[in-house]
Amino acid sequence: MTIQVAVMNGYGVALASDRHVFRGGDTRSTGQDVKLHRLRGPVPAAMMASGPFAVFGVPVSRLVLRLERALAASAGAGPEAMCESLLHALEKPIEGPVVGADADADLLAEVAGQVVGPALDEGGDARAALQRLVAEMANAPGCRDAESVEASVRTAWEASLPRLVQRVSTPALAQALREAPELCGRAVAGALARDWRADLFITVGLCCPETGVPAMLALRLWKGIGRRLHFVSRLQSDYEVAWRAGRTVVVAQGSGRMVVESLVDGLGDEHWESLSEAGRDVLRPGMDGRWDRAHGRLGVSSPRELSAVATGLVRGAEVVGYLTRQSESTMAEIDCLCLTPRGTLEGTLPAGPVLTPPA
Question: Which domains does the chain carry?
Answer without folding.
Answer: 4-95+203-349 (3.60.20), 103-193 (no CATH)
